[in-house]
Protein backbone atom coordinates (compact mmCIF):
# COMPACT_ATOMS: atom_id res chain seq x y z
CA UNK A 1 0.00 0.00 0.00
CA UNK A 2 1.49 3.36 -1.04
CA UNK A 3 2.32 5.88 1.64
CA UNK A 4 -0.19 8.73 1.96
CA UNK A 5 1.16 12.20 1.36
CA UNK A 6 0.53 14.68 4.16
CA UNK A 7 1.71 17.95 5.64
CA UNK A 8 4.60 19.78 4.00
CA UNK A 9 5.04 17.09 1.37
CA UNK A 10 1.40 17.55 0.29
CA UNK A 11 1.84 21.32 0.27
CA UNK A 12 4.93 21.06 -1.95
CA UNK A 13 3.21 18.66 -4.36
CA UNK A 14 0.16 20.92 -4.44
CA UNK A 15 2.33 23.96 -5.24
CA UNK A 16 4.09 22.10 -8.07
CA UNK A 17 0.82 20.76 -9.44
CA UNK A 18 -0.86 24.18 -9.41
CA UNK A 19 2.13 25.76 -11.17
CA UNK A 20 2.02 23.00 -13.78
CA UNK A 21 -1.73 23.38 -14.34
CA UNK A 22 -1.39 27.18 -14.59
CA UNK A 23 1.29 26.73 -17.25
CA UNK A 24 -0.88 24.26 -19.20
CA UNK A 25 -3.82 26.69 -19.23
CA UNK A 26 -7.56 26.51 -18.74
CA UNK A 27 -8.35 24.58 -21.91
CA UNK A 28 -5.88 21.75 -21.15
CA UNK A 29 -5.95 21.55 -17.36
CA UNK A 30 -8.75 23.47 -15.63
CA UNK A 31 -8.10 23.85 -11.92
CA UNK A 32 -10.69 22.51 -9.47
CA UNK A 33 -10.53 20.73 -6.13
CA UNK A 34 -11.77 17.53 -7.76
CA UNK A 35 -9.13 17.67 -10.52
CA UNK A 36 -6.40 18.31 -7.94
CA UNK A 37 -7.66 15.41 -5.79
CA UNK A 38 -7.52 13.02 -8.75
CA UNK A 39 -4.07 14.17 -9.88
CA UNK A 40 -2.65 13.82 -6.37
CA UNK A 41 -4.31 10.43 -5.93
CA UNK A 42 -6.17 11.45 -2.77
CA UNK A 43 -9.24 9.55 -1.58
CA UNK A 44 -10.85 12.45 0.27
CA UNK A 45 -11.36 16.09 -0.72
CA UNK A 46 -11.30 17.03 2.96
CA UNK A 47 -7.50 16.95 2.74
CA UNK A 48 -7.73 19.89 0.36
CA UNK A 49 -9.75 22.06 2.74
CA UNK A 50 -8.86 25.24 4.60
CA UNK A 51 -5.78 27.11 3.38
CA UNK A 52 -5.22 24.58 0.61
CA UNK A 53 -8.73 25.19 -0.72
CA UNK A 54 -8.08 28.94 -0.69
CA UNK A 55 -4.81 28.36 -2.54
CA UNK A 56 -6.60 26.22 -5.15
CA UNK A 57 -9.34 28.82 -5.66
CA UNK A 58 -6.77 31.63 -6.00
CA UNK A 59 -4.89 29.60 -8.61
CA UNK A 60 -8.17 28.90 -10.41
CA UNK A 61 -8.97 32.63 -10.55
CA UNK A 62 -5.48 33.39 -11.93
CA UNK A 63 -5.91 30.67 -14.56
CA UNK A 64 -9.31 31.97 -15.66
CA UNK A 65 -8.08 35.57 -15.78
CA UNK A 66 -5.13 34.50 -17.92
CA UNK A 67 -7.51 32.69 -20.30
CA UNK A 68 -9.52 35.83 -21.09
CA UNK A 69 -12.54 37.85 -20.01
CA UNK A 70 -14.90 36.19 -17.59
CA UNK A 71 -17.77 36.95 -15.27
CA UNK A 72 -18.72 35.18 -12.04
CA UNK A 73 -15.64 32.94 -12.39
CA UNK A 74 -17.26 31.09 -15.30
CA UNK A 75 -16.84 31.39 -19.00
CA UNK A 76 -19.91 32.60 -20.72
CA UNK A 77 -20.81 33.00 -24.35
CA UNK A 78 -21.01 36.75 -23.82
CA UNK A 79 -17.45 36.90 -22.46
CA UNK A 80 -16.16 34.92 -25.45
CA UNK A 81 -18.01 37.28 -27.76
CA UNK A 82 -16.40 40.24 -25.96
CA UNK A 83 -13.01 38.63 -26.43
CA UNK A 84 -13.73 38.07 -30.15
CA UNK A 85 -14.80 41.71 -30.53
CA UNK A 86 -11.58 42.91 -28.86
CA UNK A 87 -9.55 40.70 -31.19
CA UNK A 88 -11.43 42.05 -34.24
CA UNK A 89 -10.63 45.62 -33.13
CA UNK A 90 -6.98 44.70 -32.67
CA UNK A 91 -6.85 43.14 -36.15
CA UNK A 92 -8.40 46.28 -37.66
CA UNK A 93 -5.83 48.47 -35.86
CA UNK A 94 -2.95 46.33 -37.06
CA UNK A 95 -4.25 46.33 -40.64
CA UNK A 96 -4.53 50.13 -40.69
CA UNK A 97 -1.01 50.43 -39.25
CA UNK A 98 0.28 48.04 -41.92
CA UNK A 99 -1.40 50.09 -44.64
CA UNK A 100 0.21 53.26 -43.29
CA UNK A 101 3.66 51.61 -43.30
CA UNK A 102 3.18 50.39 -46.87
CA UNK A 103 2.25 53.93 -47.97
CA UNK A 104 5.34 55.33 -46.24
CA UNK A 105 7.51 52.69 -47.90
CA UNK A 106 6.06 53.58 -51.31
CA UNK A 107 6.91 57.26 -50.75
CA UNK A 108 10.49 56.30 -49.85
CA UNK A 109 10.78 54.13 -52.97
CA UNK A 110 9.47 56.93 -55.19
CA UNK A 111 11.97 59.38 -53.69
CA UNK A 112 14.80 56.89 -54.22
CA UNK A 113 13.78 56.35 -57.85
CA UNK A 114 13.50 60.10 -58.49
CA UNK A 115 17.08 60.59 -57.21
CA UNK A 116 18.41 57.68 -59.29
CA UNK A 117 19.26 55.43 -56.34
CA UNK A 118 19.13 51.65 -56.93
CA UNK A 119 16.00 50.63 -55.02
CA UNK A 120 16.48 46.86 -55.15
CA UNK A 121 20.02 46.98 -53.81
CA UNK A 122 19.11 49.29 -50.93
CA UNK A 123 15.82 47.59 -50.04
CA UNK A 124 17.32 44.09 -50.07
CA UNK A 125 18.47 44.74 -46.51
CA UNK A 126 14.81 44.70 -45.43
CA UNK A 127 14.27 41.15 -46.70
CA UNK A 128 13.91 38.57 -43.89
CA UNK A 129 16.61 36.22 -45.23
CA UNK A 130 19.07 38.88 -46.36
CA UNK A 131 22.72 37.84 -46.19
CA UNK A 132 25.73 39.89 -47.18
Note the gap between the termini.
67 Å
Calculate Rg over CA atoms.
27 Å
Per DSSP E runs of 2 or more residues, the count of β-strands stands at 0
Largest sheet: none
Helix content: 55-70%
How would you sum up the global shape?
A: elongated
Return the structural class. Answer: mainly alpha
Our estimate of the beta-strand percent is: under 5%
**Mean of pLDDT:** 83
Give the SSE string.
Answer: HHHHH
Number of H/I helices: 5
- Please mark out the parts with pLDDT under 50 across 5 or more consecutive residues, or reply none: none
Number of domains: 2
Keywords: Coiled coil
Coiled coil: 70-104
Word description of this protein:
α1 packs parallel to α3. With 132 residues, this protein is mainly α. It is built from 5 helices and no strands. Helices cover 65% and strands 0% of the residues. The protein has 2 domains: 7-67; 78-126. Residues 70-104 form a coiled coil. Keywords: Coiled coil.
Structure summary:
This protein is an all-alpha fold. The chain has helices spanning 7-24, 33-40, 51-67, 77-114, 119-123. It folds into 2 domains: 7-67; 78-126.
Q: Tags for this entry?
A:
132 residues, 5 helices, 2 domains, coiled coil, mainly alpha
Topology summary:
Layout: H1 7-24, H2 33-40, H3 51-67, H4 77-114, H5 119-123
Coiled coil: 70-104
Keywords: Coiled coil
